[in-house]
Design brief:
about 450 residues, mainly alpha, globular, disordered C terminus
Length: about 450
């Protein structure tokens, strides 16, 4: 907290006042003087507050500071999304060991998205009532439990249980984290909300691939490492300052409610098609991207299984600082246009599916361009909506934006898995999926250009 010179002067005057105050008639100075205090006792001048006092607790928790709090909260989003993409390179390993079909891969991927959606709808607003820290500590405990289930998984059913637990914990946390970052600093918090998810998705996919490829216990170690990170982050959250005052209504907030503040309704209607289309592409790369990549590069290395998702999400993260100074309309239009161009290039590169250097180069180049569009579209949607809602509405509105995003990520991916098995196979499904993403993006672009982005004034912080 910044103290002005005026408040400092007032404080000094208040301290000096007893020394100059006249003694009332009939009373001695000794009678009016305060009783001496034992040096070092609570309340004595210069003494530290009692270790259990509210003041001491507040001081301990403020040691993080605004920047430290933002970094910790952003790191949790990174780890959550890294954990969600960590199984991506392992799908080929699981498929080889357990003998399941591509549709099972997309179901395992899609059930996570469904669990996130359910948690967002049920727990999305609860941190506005009980506080950010209790929700985050509970969610991180759930993530730690999911990592243990992953590490011990020996069948598809166990894998599905782990994905459900992981999805519920992620959905419960993500709205509280995003709102918490906005509580600390609205401008930097909005930036971190856009930057952290693709960073987490990118690092999780690639780091998991390297751990699986070059370190022992491929289906165990990556999850145990993530378990350790979640434990450390839970300890950090326990030391964070709480940014929300508790208020009644926690149980009623768990009843799914998709109502929006009036000021955010128009912007959400504009942002929703963009968010759905860009996350549909992310869903495709997360579920079927590894199989496509291995076919193009003619390699069974699990590193390649996570490489395409890394390129997509890494480019998405790069778009955030590069477009930070651009207007919201320009960011969203740039996102949709580059998404269309990038997906178009990847479809051309697939060709007949024969692979080779030229096809692989074109595919990864298209993935990078499409990823830039993914990041720009997601960033634009966040920037368009979140400044318009009051602090006590942030978790609920952010949760709704993530509901749209995870619907886009999960539903089309499961449909694609069904088409791979019962339709024309992997390549035909990839072409159809890419064409559908282009169509969705084109519809979003028309909406952007026709609706305009005249938005209400941002809510002022109290």
């Amino acid at each position: 907290m910044t103290h002005t010179a005026t408040s400092s002067t007032a404080a000094n005057a208040a301290t000096a006042a007893p020394a100059t105050r006249a003694t009332r008639p009939g009373r001695t100075a000794a009678a009016t003087a305060p009783a001496p205090r034992t040096p070092g006792a609570p309340g004595a001048p210069g003494a530290e507050p009692s270790p259990r006092s509210p003041e001491a607790t507040r001081r301990r928790r403020l040691r993080w500071g605004p920047t430290g709090s933002l970094v910790l909260l952003a790191s949790i989003i990174v780890t959550l999304l890294a954990a969600s993409s960590a199984p991506t390179p392992l799908y080929a390993v699981y498929q080889h060991e357990w003998g399941f079909s591509p549709i099972t891969t997309t179901v395992v991927f899609g059930v996570y998205a469904v669990a996130v959606l359910a948690a967002l709808l049920v727990f999305g607003r609860i941190s506005d009532h009980v506080g950010r820290r209790p929700v985050l500590v509970t969610a991180l405990a759930g993530q730690a439990a999911a990592m243990v289930v992953f590490a011990e998984a020996g069948s598809v059913s166990t894998l599905l249980v782990a994905r459900v637990v992981q999805g519920v914990a992620t959905g419960a946390a993500i709205g509280a984290i995003g709102a918490g970052m906005l509580d600390v600093d609205r401008a930097r918090g909005a930036l971190a909300n856009s930057f952290a998810p693709p960073i987490g998705t990118a690092t999780g996919a690639l780091a998991s691939g390297f751990v699986v490829q070059f370190l022992p216990s491929p289906t165990h170690l990556v999850y145990l490492l993530l378990l350790g990170v979640f434990v450390l982050q839970a300890l950090g959250v326990a030391a964070l300052p709480e940014t929300v005052t508790r208020k009644p209504g926690a149980l009623s907030s768990m009843s799914p409610d998709i109502r929006l503040p009036r000021a955010a309704r128009g912007p959400v209607a504009i942002a929703a098609p963009v968010l759905f289309s860009v996350w549909a592409l992310a869903g495709f790369y997360g579920s079927l991207g590894p199989a496509i990549t291995r076919g193009l590069v003619h390699s069974d290395s699990v590193v390649y299984g996570g490489l395409s998702l890394f390129v997509l999400a890494g480019s998405a993260a790069l778009s955030v600082p590069l477009l930070r100074a651009a207007g919201t309309r320009a960011v969203m239009v740039t996102g949709v246009v580059t998404l269309i161009v990038g997906v178009g290039l990847t479809l051309l590169s697939l060709g007949s599916g024969g692979g080779g250097a030229a096809a692989s180069t074109g595919f990864f180049a298209g993935s990078a361009i499409a990823g830039f569009g993914f990041g720009a579209g997601f960033q634009g949607g966040i920037r368009l909506v979140v400044p318009l809602v009051a602090p006590h509405e942030r978790a609920g509105v952010l949760s709704l934006l993530y509901v749209v995003s995870y619907l886009g990520m999960g539903v089309p991916a499961v449909v694609a898995g069904f088409l791979v098995v019962h339709g024309g196979g992997l390549l035909d499904t990839a072409r159809e999926y890419g064409a559908a993403v282009i169509l969705l993006a084109a519809v979003a672009l028309v909406g952007l250009l026709t609706a305009g982005l005249r938005t209400p004034q941002a809510v002022r912080e109290s």
